[in-house]
Amino acid sequence: SFLDTLGEVKKIGYQGFQSSFRNVSAQFAAPGPARRSIEQTGLTFFGIHIFFPNDKYDQATRIAAATVYEPVARGGAALGAKHLILSGAPSPDADALKRKIDALNAAGRFAQNVGIAAAYHNHWWEFESKIGEIEALYTETDPALVHFVLDAGHAYHGGADVPAFIRKHAKRIVGFHLRDYRDGRLVTLGSGTFPLAAIAETIKQIGWKGWVENEEERDNHSQNGADVIAPAYRAMKEAFAS
Questions:
Q1: DSSP H or E segment with residue 167
Q2: How far apart are CA 171 and CA 156, in angstroms?
Q3: Using one digit for the tens of pLDDT, what is the confidence trace for 66-120?
Q4: Contact between residue 100 and residue 91 where contact means Cβ atoms under 8 Å apart
Q5: Is residue 209's pLDDT more than 80?
Q6: Distance (Å, rounded) from C-alpha 118 to C-alpha 174?
Q7: d(CA 140, CA 131)
Q8: What is the pTM of this model?
Q9: Cβ atoms of residues 73 and 89 within 8 Å
Q10: Within 13 Å of residue 4, how many CA atoms lie on the same side as its CB?
Q11: Given the DSSP bridges, would you call strands 180-182 and 185-187 parallel, antiparallel or unpaired?
């Protein structure tokens, strides 16, 4: 069950978690018992994430429609989530990018009003954008309304100089996702070519404080549980050890 999984996550040593909205949406109507159960695990509910295949986002704004994110924001706040995390499809042109920026500001304003902070989670396509999408998102959204969860693994996969990007935009970042690659394929954190040590050192050098998360996805959608999140946790601990 969801709570059994959280118990395993806690046992390994993690201090918090992020969840797809699909895992908890059934609890939105009566969130009190679920929130108490989550709090009893001792884990912080960092964020509730809305992610779709690119063709399922609102095609005008390139993020989830308001009819989707508004109930998730309310429900996530009621369950104790700290952040409403939004992913999005790539913007094909400057006009679409402007609509996306406006939509993120609107989502951030709504989230703030219901007691949760909005954050945008990137994939590799924002970094591969020919119109500078990732820079526009970080510099043209309202910093009072929109924060960022930098998926450093996707940024690396998209060709970014990740330490340099972190130094430039650290003030907008509330969390990091770490993932690893070998030969372009996702592998357990610490076993690929992702520059984990350099990124950890950058985060420590600039004195950034916040959440650093391990995200163990696989291209074939396999679910390997503790077999992958336990060694990934050890890799994170080693990289961030002072």
A1: helix 162-169
A2: 20
A3: 999 999 999 999 999 999 999 999 999 999 999 999 999 999 999 999 999 999 9
A4: yes
A5: yes
A6: 10
A7: 14
A8: 0.97
A9: no
A10: 3
A11: antiparallel
Phi then psi dihedrals of residue 143, to 5 deg: -65, -20
* Among the listed residues 129, 203, 219, 118, the one whose alpha carbon sits nearest the alpha carbon of residue 236: 203
Question: Apex CA 99: angle with CA 136 and CA 18, to 5°?
Answer: 70
Residue 22 CB: number of other CB atoms within 10 A? 12
Show the tokens assigned to 145.
């309304």
Query: Minimal CA–CA distance to 116: which of 181, 208, 48?
Result: 48
For the record, the structure tokens of 111 come out as 């989230």
| pLDDT number for residue 223 | 78
The amino acid at residue 77 is: A
Q: Of 16, 32, 51, which is closest to residue 151 (Cα–Cα)?
A: 51
Q: Which residues pair with 49 in a beta bridge?
A: 20, 85
